[in-house]
Structure formats: structure tokens, C-alpha cells
Segregation and condensation protein B (Novosphingobium barchaimii LL02), 210 residues
Amino acid sequence: MSITDNTQPDDFVRAVEATLFAAEEPMSAEQIAAHLGFGDKGAGQVRPVIEQLAAHYEGRGILLVERGRRWHFETAPDLAHLLRREKEELRRLSRAATEVLAIVAYHEPVSRAEIEAIRGVQTAKGTLDVLMEAGWVRVAGRREVPGRPVIYATTPVFLDHFGLGTLKELPGIDELRAAGLLDPVDEDMIEAVLGPVNTRKADERESDPD
């Protein structure tokens, strides 16, 4: 059950590869195993094959990448421009939508009241609707408190769009500032959004034995 440039991959490897290639959406190891008739318990057999395939495609024109524990093929970033016939119009968010998206990403799951407490202003329903229509934010259930408010979280589409494997890869405020991605007028809002996150990261670093 191996794959190299000098050997013919076996049927199981080829089946996993074909499944991922034909999939309309990213698939988890559990989904691939179920599709191939192994059930959820077959995920343990599928994962090492996916990792072998990912290594096989590394450095090629297409890559096998993981986003939110789901895998899919995508064009190598340095070649993407060759496949664009027209310049893609970037989805531009309003300042309010950008703030809400950042709060959801760094504090999920989070309710509207919690979002408003961090922003210091009311959040229009349309703002969350825009983020959900983009596929970046989803309803994640209800908080088990009086009133049972709806809570929101990000989606695998959000991770994929921003090139993140998991939410742990979200940058901190120092990283945003160093990269020149932080407008001075946004610093107060970003500090409010990321303050607890940066404090937690600092505590994790101090407690890390390495």
C-alpha cells in the first residue's frame, strides 16, 4: 500500500486517489472510507494513504491539501494565475462584516450578544446574513442559557478560502501588524477581538515545556 515515482500504486491507493479527484467537495478520511465500503472504522486505513498521496503530489502542478480535516486537490498557488482567464473580483466585505467575521473566527462558537459586547455596537442581522451567504459562517446551535440564543461558527469553506488547515493557524495581532495587514484605525477593534486570544497564546507558550 505505497506510492513512489518508481512503482505502480496498488488498487487501494488508486481508489482513494480517484475518489478525491472526482469528489465535488472536500472529503474527510471517514467519508472516503464510507464511500469505498469500509465504514467509519476504515478511516484508519485511509489516512496513511492520503498522507502518501499528499507527499506524492508535493511540488507538482496540483496539490492534495487538508482544510478543516477534509482533503481535496487544488492548483499549486504559484500556478493559479495561469488558469485564470479573467481577474477574479475579490469579495469585499464592509467594515462591520469584517469585524463580525474576525470575532466569530477567534471566539467561536459565539452569539450575537457576545459579538455586540466585543464590538461595542449593535450588529445588523444583514451582516451575519452576508457572511452566511458567502459560506464562511454557519449557525452552530443554541447556547444552553436562558433564552437559548443562536450561536455562530466558521465553516470549512472559510478555512479553505483563507488557506487555513485549522483555526489554530489564525494569526495573532503581532503577526497581523508585522505583515502590514493592520490599519491603524482598526487597532482598537482588533485589540478587542484578539486581546483574550493573544493572552491565551502567551499563557500556552509559557506552559509549553519545549
